[in-house]
Amino acid sequence: QVQLAESGGGLGHPGGSLRLSCEDSGLTFSAYNLAWYRQAPGKERELVASISMAQETTYAPSVQGRFTISRDNRKSTVYLQMNNLNLEDTAMYYCNARRGSRAYWGQGIQVTVSS
After folding, report:
1. Are 92 and 38 in contact (CB under 8 A)?
2. What mean pLDDT, rounded, does the chain reach?
């Protein structure tokens, strides 16, 4: 059974940092493209960052230069390093693993940025 488990969320402060992790169990992790999405209250879920099997990365314009996505296939884990947080980063964050038509989601983890 596939399970993606996020960790590392919680309360952050403007200008501060948080690091999210998402550990997989049940997938051939290295064979999947990975991504982080987020959904703020009253808004649609949006793609934050993605990393392909070949380690190619993409970022939403709103986080470019502040967030870094990375993966460790040996640990079956994908990370999202979030620096220079701002209030608009407050959202539920979800990790996603995708291969062709198959897609798996974590349950989500809350990130709240507040002064």
Report:
1. yes
2. 95
- For the chain, give the percent of residues with pLDDT over 90: 92
Neighbours of 13 (CB within 10 A): 13
CA distances to 36, 53, 97 from 29, rounded to whole Å, are 15, 9, 8
Q: How many helices (H) and strands (E) does the chain have?
A: 0, 11
31 SS3 class: helix
Q: What is the mean pLDDT of residues 77-97?
A: 97
Closest CA to 5 of 111, 112, 88, 109: 109
The yes-or-no verdict on residue 1 having pLDDT over 80 is no
